[in-house]
Amino acid sequence: MKISITNSKLGDKIPSLNLPTTVCRADAPCKKGCYARKGNWLFPNVINSLQQNLNEFNENPTKFFNDIIEYLNNDDVTFKFFRWFSSGDIVNQTFLNGMVKVAKKCKNTKFLCFTKKFELVNEYLNACELPKN
Questions:
Q1: Tens of pLDDT, residue by residue, the chain (133 residues)
Q2: What is the distance between the alpha carbons of residues 2 and 13, in angstroms, rounded to a whole number?
Q3: Distance of alpha carbon 97 from its chain centroid, rounded?
Q4: Which of 57, 83, 87, 96 could form a disulfide with 18 if both were Cys (CB 3.0 to 4.6 A apart)?
Q5: Does residue 88 contact residue 19 with C-beta atoms inside 8 Å?
Q6: Could you tell me the strand order of the sheet in which 81-84 lies?
Q7: By the 8 A CB rule, do 102 and 110 touch?
């Protein structure tokens, strides 16, 4: 799994997990001007790492999210913040459930996620509460 640690807008020490834009809604209002469909995002190594993240989730969701928990809860660095998706979006309900699991296990980290998959989040919120972080 590739977790990005440097982002020109976020600065250093704010990790983010990115996925290919193929997981985004086809009718997303941001699709036309999407920055993740141009520039550095088109380099083969970037495309490959985004796809690898998606492949790892699809192959073993439990391991995928446990790896993120382990990354954030290591003894060397305490991450105060984590961003889901500079590129990509929530894949499905299983992915959202995994995001919530990560937040519950990493109580000292604040999470940020922008999404256009409102229906997944609304369905979750109808049944459960999101963790405060």
A1: 999 886 656 656 789 999 999 999 999 888 888 988 888 888 999 999 999 999 999 999 999 999 999 999 987 877 899 999 989 999 999 999 999 999 999 999 999 999 999 999 999 999 999 999 9
A2: 15
A3: 12
A4: 87
A5: yes
A6: 3-7, 11-17, 81-84, 110-113
A7: no
- Which residues neighbour 130 within 8 Å (Cβ) at sequence distance 6 or greater? 100, 103, 124
Cα separation of 83 and 72, whole Å? 12
